[in-house]
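Before the break, one more example. Copy the sequence into your notebook; we will annotate it together after we see the structure.
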Amino acid sequence: MQRLRSALIEQLERPGSPTQELAALLREIGREARTNQVRPEQLIVIFKQLWNSLAETLRPQDTDQYEKIRQRLVTLCIQAYYAE
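Here is what the structure looks like once it is written out:
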């Protein structure tokens, strides 16, 4: 969780495309969630809660940009969960 928190903070500070580190970490988390039989919707809820708490703390200027990157990251989580 600490690695994810750090990677998300970095992403929030640079809200362009997902960083390679974060994308790899989300793939790892997706695989672990599937292996541990965490339902995909639970994974997404946990991710969004963490993202929202960090975004609230950092108070982003451009909320539309942060929403777009959040949606991309959620998509990465889902793809990782269902990847073979």
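The chain has a mean pLDDT of 87. Residues 2-82 form one domain. Try to locate both features in your own notes.
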